[in-house]
Write a structure and sequence with these properties.
single chain, about 400 residues, alpha/beta, Aspartate Aminotransferase, domain 1, Aspartate Aminotransferase, domain 2, about 40% helix, globular, binds pyridoxal-5'-phosphate
Length: about 400
């Protein structure tokens, strides 16, 4: 045993990262692995963003900057919130961070005391759970079902709130399910939240632009909730900028100040060149990524139609993001040669080792019956992947 801290022992390794590592190992042995486990667009960052980064370098944006981000970038983020989300924020209410992941950590560490209850809507993005544990908060998990398109109802929300509830972690469009809530559904949840002013809400809207059937609507644009909601967003998904690591929040000013204080001791301001690049991205009208969204929509339709040919797999139709989250529990209890499928992790391992497909087990997202399939890849790969999934699952008796 190495003398590592008890804090470290609170953490689990990200299942997504573990799956990617195993898939790289198999690839390096010369196997042709199709990796559908990653949560990032397969497109390149658009040229106008790269040019803005180059300009930033030429203009010597290469020094320390304010911890909460360049002032002109925060102004641009305010314009973006007004244009896309109908939310009024001032630059003092914005904090720019090293990815939305850091934005989330800042908010959670700013608000949560040991024992505070945090409501998580399962399936949830794996990082939420881990960050709440790091802050010694108490995760209160509300399960949603595929028949309801994985949406929490106002009744479920109300039942989960206690005097100790400090925070709700809300994610629409959602990773891992691709669920997007309608305006009416959000207004119904808002009725519960506005009666519970002690509950703050992180509204993670990082997939807002990747949606197909439903308009994205922001919780903080509901005036009764404005003081309770922290809107988290970033450029990773919409602008294919996952490697640039820029995320941000819009929040009540006291929360923004708290986040700046925490970030000031961890990382200081986010990378200066990446901020110059991201400024050009947030200033761009979202219609500029229409083609990418259209391609994702075609891929969703293709993948769904192919998965629906697999007997035993239950799907719903996700309206956003680039994930499908089918119920695969019909395969539990089956076996093939030495493989015994007891749960989603076993099934993902089997699909990887036998079918050479990398997926993410549902246990990582707080559910037992599902797995996550990303369709952020070409149509040829989707066709080949679905063929392999079908053939491999058919081996199970
Ligand atoms: N929120 C959700 C729901 C995500 O899926 C991700 C990334 O996968 C993030 C936040 C973090 O994004 P980033 O740190 O790349 O800005």
């Amino acid at each position: 045993m190495k003398p590592t801290s008890s804090f470290l022992s609170l953490l689990s390794e990200s299942a997504t990262i573990a799956m990617s590592r195993r898939s790289r190992e198999l690839s390096s042995q010369g196997l042709d692995i199709i990796n559908l486990s990653l949560g990032e667009p397969d497109f390149d960052t658009p040229d106008f963003i790269k040019e803005a980064a180059e300009k930033g370098m030429q203009e010597n944006y290469t020094h320390y900057m304010p911890v909460n981000g360049f002032a002109d970038f925060r102004e641009a983020i305010c314009r973006k919130f007004k244009r896309d989300n109908n939310i009024e924020y001032t630059p003092e209410q914005i904090v720019v961070s090293t990815g939305a992941k850091q934005s989330l950590a800042n908010v959670i560490l700013s608000l949560i005391d040991p024992g505070d209850e945090v409501i998580l809507v399962a399936p949830f993005w794996v990082t939420y759970f881990e960050q709440v544990k790091m802050a010694k908060g108490k995760p209160v998990v509300v399960q949603t079902e595929i028949e309801d398109n994985f949406k929490i109802t106002p009744q479920q929300l109300e039942a989960a709130i206690t005097d100790k509830t400090k925070l709700l972690l809300f994610n629409s469009p959602s990773n891992p399910t691709g669920t997007i809530y309608s305006k009416e559904e959000l207004l119904a949840l808002a009725e519960v939240l506005k009666e519970n002013k002690h509950v703050y809400v992180i509204s993670d809207e990082i997939y807002e632009h990747i949606n197909y059937d439903e308009e994205h609507y922001s919780l903080a644009s509901i005036s009764a909730l404005y003081d309770q909601v922290i809107t988290v967003n970033g450029v990773s998904k919409a602008f294919a900028m996952t490697g640039w690591r820029i995320g941000y929040i819009g929040a009540p000013e006291w929360i923004a100040k708290a986040c700046t204080k925490i970030q000031g001791q961890f990382t200081s301001g986010a990378n200066s060149i990446a901020q110059r690049a991201a400024l050009s991205a947030v200033d761009k009208d979202p219609s500029s990524i229409k083609d990418m969204v259209e391609q994702f929509k075609n891929r969703r339709n293709l993948m769904l139609s192919l998965l629906n040919e697999i007997s035993g797999m239950i799907t719903n139709k996700p309206g956003a993001a680039f994930y499908i989250y089918p119920d695969v529990s019909a395969f539990y209890g089956r076996s093939y040669e030495g493989y015994q499928i007891k749960n989603s992790t076993d099934l993902c391992n089997f699909l990887l080792e036998k079918g050479h497909i990398a997926l993410v087990p549902g246990e990582a997202f707080g559910t037992q019956k599902h797995l996550r399939i990303s369709y952020a890849t070409s149509e040829e790969q989707i066709k080949e992947a679905c063929k392999r999934i079908k053939n491999t699952l058919e081996l199970l008796q």
